[in-house]
Fold these 2 entries.
Entry 1:
Amino acid sequence: MYPLVKTCCRWLVLYAILFAATPTFSQDSIRYTDAASLLLTGKAKATREAYQRMDSAETRGMPAVIRTLARRSAGIAVLFETNSNIIRVRWKLAGEVYLPNMTPIGHSGLDLYCLKAGKWQFVSVARPARGTDQDQVIIQHMDSSMKQFMLYLPLYNSVEALQIGVQSDALIRTPLQPGINKDKRIVIYGSSVVQGASASRPGMAYPALLQRRTGYDVINLGFSGSAKMEAAMAVYLATVPADCYVLDCIPNPTPDLIRERAYPFIKYLREHQPAVPIILVETVFRQNGYWDRQLGQKVEKQNEETRKTYERLLQEGHRHIYYIRSAALIGDDHEATIDGIHLTDLGFSRISDALMPVIRKAMREEKGF
């Protein structure tokens, strides 16, 4: 009998340990709210599908890859406040994604922040599992004070549905005093770096960093490998309300395309939004371009053509245009990228540091902020 008793005791101890480690709530105690009924930030305009960046009707006439990437949820976040001790999330992804230079949390996960003492502080992430239907506790064991949260959506996947779960007896609502001022908007058009490659999590992409630092509504219109200044995109951008446009779109087009498209693109935007400052950003220098001379020379020519465009616009008397050189963007220690091109969290922090004073200067001088 003694061996049997010892075995039973071991199982009881193991059961007690597992039970103690298991969250002390049941699925029935969680009440879910459709995130689309709360406050969405980071959207250029209203769209038929809540969690895509551009409405499909407005991407007609644009390249197929833009139409696809416009459905990604990069830069979109949900603002809400709750006094729940726990926050659970359910989200449905359009598909499974594999990207060798990004974490699953970055391309398909969720990233939660809380407004504490007037500043946004990281809380936790929701890690995507295999498949498209996701369900996860993102944080628990909090106190029951009312707090404001911001939940960032995936950078390189599409969200088809999103629910936020709180305790059944807790309150969840749109913030009474949102920590993001949606009346002040920065619109950033650019490449994969703008979209968020290769941030470790959605909140570390530089548009999201700028959003939390400024408290403004920052619109992420980054299109991986596909920001080539098409005329249709200029027409669209001119219809997006903004207090500042940041054009970080130089990495993707060839020097010849920059020569052909940059001037008419910026001129069109300037003529249709004459009072809104435009910040033109050179391409980040590829770190492997210091060794691959063909690549390095291409980047130098991209930036050379960009400077020529900027100087031409100034000579013609176009106002409210600012310029940031490549050397100012990510430091000179060559440690800010994951693959020589796309940025780590360190790189994103540095590029946001470089943009912040120029954005503030442009908006203060031109818009009075």
Entry 2:
Amino acid sequence: MIKVLFFAGLAEQAGQAETEVDFAGRTVEELTEWAIDTHRLSPDSLNGAMVAVNEEFASQSTELTAGDVVAFIPPVSGG
């Protein structure tokens, strides 16, 4: 299983801060598409969001393995 974490506004949109899915052998891109479809996230809300796998930033082509933790981190502004 892959643990998926949603931060800030993405957690509000998804209605939960975390979930688990069976996405081993699939890519971050496929997981992103799943998140958009399953949690009704706006593609715009993920535009500019960073994705981290096991606490390291990852590309959309990164392949996931069982036990990974994936975090969707939206852009944050502040002063």
